């Protein structure tokens, strides 16, 4: 059974409060988005060490890394075109919390790593889709295009996991981590980032 992005059933939609904050904080949104793209490229490269026996996977991971770096450059260019300063800030709890809930050793360690990559791509995909109609040009068109790239990346990570385990095991590991993801997205957070939760109004 080939898994698609529809297999990644996000536990909740992006909260309306986060979308409002994003539209109101475009410099912070783009700055953190750029960092996310760079981290995604680094993760694709890091995963290569697990796939030396799979040349086709190595090629796909290399392509993902290049695409993520191109996106990083594109977001930096958009910041410059819009006369906005690139101001990287400490990350939100999102990715760190997901990694803390992954197995640190054993047969499920790599599967969990791939599932987290797929979940992050799927959430990014969902947020691009929600943001595109709310943002001014050229951001609106750009986020519409990124939606397709993130969707493809999410499905590739699901595909890689099935090299090692069957689809049912993939879905079980995916479901466990998605529960954590839903709690992070739906709970309040004091900072605003691309993958942060509900903005704290206090």
Mind explaining what this structure looks like?
This protein has 202 residues and is mainly alpha-helical. It contains 7 helices and 2 strands. It has helices at 16-24, 26-47, 55-81, 94-100, 109-131, 139-161, 167-186; strands at 188-189, 198-199. A two-stranded parallel ribbon has the order 1-2. Helix 3 (55-81) packs antiparallel against helix 6 (139-161). The radius of gyration is 17 Å and the shape is globular.
The strand line-up of the biggest sheet is 1-2
> Mind describing the biggest β-sheet?
2 strands, parallel
Question: How much β-strand is present in the residues?
Answer: under 5%
Q: Give the low-pLDDT segments.
A: none
**How many beta strands in the DSSP annotation?**
2
Helix count, per DSSP?
Answer: 7
**Which radius of gyration do the C-alpha atoms yield?**
17 Å
Shape field: globular
What is the end-to-end distance? 47 Å
Average pLDDT, to the nearest integer?
95
């Amino acid at each position: 059974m080939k898994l698609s992005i529809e297999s990644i059933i996000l536990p909740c939609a992006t909260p309306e409060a986060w979308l409002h904050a994003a539209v109101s904080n475009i410099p912070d949104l783009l700055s953190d988005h750029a960092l996310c793209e760079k981290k995604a490229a680094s993760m694709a490269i890091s995963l290569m060490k697990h796939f030396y026996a799979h040349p086709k996977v190595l090629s796909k991971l290399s392509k993902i890394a290049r695409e993520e770096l191109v996106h990083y450059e594109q977001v930096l260019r958009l910041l410059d075109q819009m006369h906005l300063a690139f101001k990287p800030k400490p990350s939100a709890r999102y990715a760190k919390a997901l990694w803390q809930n992954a197995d640190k050793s054993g047969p499920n360690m790599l599967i969990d790593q791939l599932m987290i990559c797929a979940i992050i791509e799927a959430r990014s995909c969902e947020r691009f889709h929600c943001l595109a109609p709310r943002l001014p040009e050229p951001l609106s068109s750009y986020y519409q295009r990124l939606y397709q790239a993130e969707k493809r990346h999410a499905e590739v990570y699901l595909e890689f996991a099935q090299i090692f385990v069957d689809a049912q095991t993939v879905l079980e590991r995916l479901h466990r981590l998605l529960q954590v993801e839903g709690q992070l997205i739906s709970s309040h957070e004091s900072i605003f980032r691309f993958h942060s939760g509900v903005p704290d109004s206090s």
